[in-house]
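In the current project phase, the collection of sequences with tokenised folds has grown. A representative record is quoted in full directly below:
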Amino acid sequence: MGEIKRTPIDEASLERLLGLESSKIGFYAEVKQKIQELEAANLGLRTKSSELQAVFDSIADGVAIYDGSGHVQHRNHVCPRLFPRETIVGSSCGKLFHPELPHSPASCPVERALTGESVQISFTTSAEGAEPRYFDVTATPIEDAVGQNRALIFLRDVTEKRLQEMQLLQAEKMSSIGLLAAGVAHEINNPLTSVAGYAEALLRRFRDEPELRGDPRLDVFPKYLEVIIRESYRCKGIIDCLLSFSRKSDGSVEKVDINLVLHEVLELVRHKSRYERVEIREELQPDLPLVHGDAAGLRQVFMNLLINAHQAIKGAGTVEISTSGNDSGVVIQVKDSGCGIRPDHLDHIWEPFFTTKSVGQGVGLGLAVTYNIIKKQGGEIQVESKQGKGSKFTVRLPACQP
């Protein structure tokens, strides 16, 4: 027999031979292939969608997308924490950025982004009974396939940063006042030294020259000169305390005598007590252990507490300051007979810029600064208060170990 020749048949020829082109088998095979292609494409889309959603949710800022009409289309998980009602899907941009106006094309970041403009603004929210919050907003237009813009919004809570900036600004202002006070104190110190010196010289003459002592017209002069000398040195002592208080802290830790610090601070506030009918009572343990701390920072702590105690008293009253301690630590208490602190305010008194004082009385930084200084030095501070009965602040500091 002769050799049989085999002719190769390609896939198209095979389909024609079997009649798959026109048969239902061929149609279903093509449909099946398309379905497989679509499933593969859908899987890829789902994977990409999951990746994008993961990226969307991993952003620490609030992210929202507004559609062409200015309504929330998507938002990440941060938005409900920042603005739970204002960023609900379907909410208009007005609920967040201009609640009192239906439209605000000049100031609304969403409306400006929908016109194709990239915008960066800052705004503040202040709910009733709550502290104000500060936000930075970035709005970017997103153009879709048909040329219509949507708005991508980033919301960043910068409240803590803004408060730190304000606190730093206030600290710089206080530092400038301290430098000014130090300069004035030096200028006053020089003439006071002259006054005290000349008064002492006159008093020596009265003691050394019998004819002056025998003159009846000058009988009261020694007494007057002694008062001038005593009060001049008292003023010099106050100025020295003021210079110590205004001296900038370098953060260095040293052994500190708390009683000495309190004497310096009390010397500065006693004049306030005289004019405001406030009695200061001291009960300082004489053999108080030394503490490791920043003396300048501790002066500021007790100055803040004593000034607050004075301001809490309207009319006559008392401020009691006491110290006690042993080898483990030192306890300082400042108690006043003032108006006390409302129970709903007690949890907020350590917050920066929280104050119940009237305008001009304070900015709400004293207790926040006090708390931070005490914590940095390894101590703790507590408060007990009853409205109408007064307040008691207790500071605990670790003692120096032998």
